[in-house]
Write a structure and sequence with these properties.
Elements lengths: L4 E4 L3 H12 L4 E4 L11 E4 L2 E4 L6 E3 L2 H8 L12 E4 L2 E4 L4 H8 L4 H15 L7 H9 L1 H16 L29 E3 L6 H7 L5 E4 L8 H7 L2 E4 L3 H4 L9 E11 L9 E4 L8 E4 L11 E10 L8 E2 L3 H16 L3 E3 L1 H4 L6 H16 L1
Parallel strand pairs: 1-2, 1-10, 2-9, 6-12, 10-16
Antiparallel strand pairs: 3-4, 5-8, 6-7, 11-14, 11-15, 12-13, 13-14
Helix pairs in contact: 1-12, 4-5, 5-6
Bound molecules: flavin-adenine dinucleotide.
Flavin-adenine dinucleotide binds next to helix 1, helix 11 and helix 12.
Length: 368
C-alpha cells in the first residue's frame, strides 16, 4: 500500500491534518506510540463518566470558523469554566472578580474593590518588579497574591515566587463584575460524550490507516525512506537526537480515585492555592457533563519537574530554551519532506482551538 503522508502522532494536530488530507483524496498513515488515539485530549469512559486522562480540557474560542469546524465532529454542551480556589478551607471564586472580592473583604461595589486593591498596591509601592512576587503584588495587591497566587504558582513551577522571573505573569485577569466565567471567549463547551469521538471521526476515512503502539524512532530510517511526506508532531529535540540539548518542560503526575459517592466537591475544578497541599488541583470529571452517575471519579494534579520518559506537558519558554528551540527550528526547516507541527513539534503551549487553526493552515498550504 502506498501512502501520500505519514502522520506521526494522532493528537488533535495530526488528526486534523489527516482528516483534511483524506478529504482531498490523499492516502494517510497515522502512527502513535500510545495505545490509543487522541493525544492529550483523549477521554476514557469509566463508570459512565468521561475522564480527561491527560488533564482537564475545556474547549473555548472566539473564532467562529474553528467553533463550527469542531462542532462537525461532536455536539458541545453549555459547560462554562468557573473554577473555585480552596485556600485553607475557605472557598473563593475564580477568576478574580466581585464574588472573590466580596468574600475576601466584604466589599459590595466595584469602586470599593478597586480602592482596596489600589490601597494595597500603593502601600507596597513597587516601581519596577524584580520577580514574580513583586509583579503579582503590583498588579493585584497583597491579599489576592498571598491567598490565591503565591502557593499555587510556587507549586506549579517548583520554585519560590521571589526566584521566578516577573515576565511569567504579564497580566492577571481582574474583573469588576459578578462573573465567574473563567474565559472571555464567545464560544465554550465540552463535547457531549467526551473528546475521543472527535478524533475517531477525523480518522474514520477509508483513506486513513492508523497504527497504535508504533514509535517513530523504532523505525525512523524506514519511515523516512518510504513516505514521500511526513507530518511529525512529536518532540522536535528528539527528532534531532537532542543535538543542542534537551528542551525543558514542566510535567504533571495524576492520581485518580473512583469514589463510591455521587458528588465529591460540587465543581469540576477546585484549585488548592496554599503552599502546604502538595497538589494544585482536584478535577471531578463528571461535572464537565453535568453527570449524575452514582459514583464519581476525581483526579489530583501534582506538578513535577520533567525528565526523559515523563509526559512533557508545559514548555518552559525562558531565554535558554527559546534559543535552543530556534536552533532546532532552523534544522527542521532544512529537513526535506518532514513538516513539524503541534505543541511538541513547535515547542509551544497551544490551546485546542489554536492547534486546529495551525493544522488547517498547514493543510491549506500543503494540500492546495
Ligand atoms: P498531543 O495531543 O500531545 O499529540 C501528540 C501525539 O503524538 C501523542 O498522541 C503522542 O503519543 C504522539 N507521539 C509523540 N511522539 C511520538 C513518536 N515518537 N512516535 C509516535 N507517536 C508519537 N487546551 C484547551 O483548549 N483547553 C484546555 O482546557 C486545555 N487544558 C490542557 C490541560 C493540560 C494539562 C495540558 C497539558 C494541555 C491542555 N490543553 C488545553 C492543550 C491541548 O492539550 C493541546 O492543544 C492539544 O492536545 C495538542 O495537540 P497536539 O496534537 O499538538 O499534541
Amino acid at each position: 500500500m502506498s501512502y501520500d503522508y505519514l502522520v506521526v502522532g494522532s493528537g488533535l494536530f495530526g488528526s486534523t491534518f489527516a482528516y483534511e488530507a483524506a478529504k482531498r483524496g490523499k492516502r494517510v498513515k497515522v502512527i502513535d506510540k500510545r495505545d490509543h488515539i487522541g493525544g492529550n485530549i483523549y477521554t476514557e469512559n469509566i463508570e459512565g463518566i468521561n475522564v480527561h486522562k491527560y488533564g482537564a480540557h475545556i474547549f473555548h474560542t472566539n473564532n467562529k470558523e474553528i467553533w463550527d469546524y469542531v462542532n462537525q465532529f461532536a455536539e458541545f454542551n453549555r459547560y462554562t469554566n468557573s473554577p473555585v480556589a480552596n485556600y485553607k478551607g475557605q472557598i473563593y471564586n475564580l477568576p478574580f472578580n466581585m464574588n472573590t472580592f466580596n468574600k475576601l473583604w466584604g466589599v459590595i461595589t466595584p469602586e470599593e474593590a478597586k480602592n482596596k486593591i489600589e490601597a494595597q498596591r500603593k502601600a507596597i509601592n513597587i516601581e519596577k518588579p524584580k520577580n514574580l512576587e513583586e509583579q503579582a503584588i503590583s498588579l493585584v495587591g497583597t491579599d489576592i497574591y498571598e491567598k490565591l497566587i503565591k502557593g499555587y504558582t510556587e507549586k506549579q513551577w517548583g520554585r519560590k515566587a521571589t526566584e521566578l522571573p516577573s515576565f511569567i505573569i504579564k497580566r492577571l485577569p481582574v474583573r469588576f463584575t459578578y462573573d465567574n466565567n473563567y474565559f472571555n471567549d464567545r464560544y465554550q463547551g465540552i463535547p457531549i460524550g467526551g473528546y475521543t469521538q472527535i478524533i475517531e471521526k477525523m480518522l474514520s476515512s477509508e483513506l486513513i490507516d492508523v497504527e497504535l503502539n508504533r514509535d517513530f524512532f523504532s523505525n525512523r530510517e524506514e519511515y523516512i525512506e518510504s513516505y514521500p511526506r511526513i507530518v511529525y508532531t512529536g518532540m522536535i529535540d528528539q527528532f534531532f537526537d537532542y543535538k543542542y540539548g534537551e528542551l525543558e518542560y514542566r510535567s504533571l503526575q495524576f492520581e485518580s480515585s473512583l469514589l463510591d459517592q455521587e458528588n465529591y466537591q460540587g465543581n469540576a475544578v477546585v484549585n488548592y492555592t496554599d503552599a502546604e497541599t502538595p497538589f494544585t488541583r482536584i478535577i471531578e470529571h463528571k461535572h464537565f457533563e453535568f453527570g449524575n452517575q452514582p459514583k464519581t471519579l476525581i483526579t489530583k494534579e501534582f506538578p513535577k519537574t520533567w525528565k526523559k520518559g515523563d509526559e512533557p506537558y508545559y514548555p518552559v519558554n525562558d531565554d535558554n530554551n527559546s534559543e535552543k528551540f530556534r536552533k532546532y527550528r532552523k534544522l527542521a526547516e532544512e529537513q526535506p519532506n518532514v513538516i513539524f507541527g503541534g505543541r511538541l513539534g513547535m515547542y509551544q503551549y497551544y490551546d485546542m482551538h489554536q492547534v486546529i487553526a495551525a493544522a488547517l493552515s498547514l493543510a491549506k498550504k500543503e494540500l492546495s
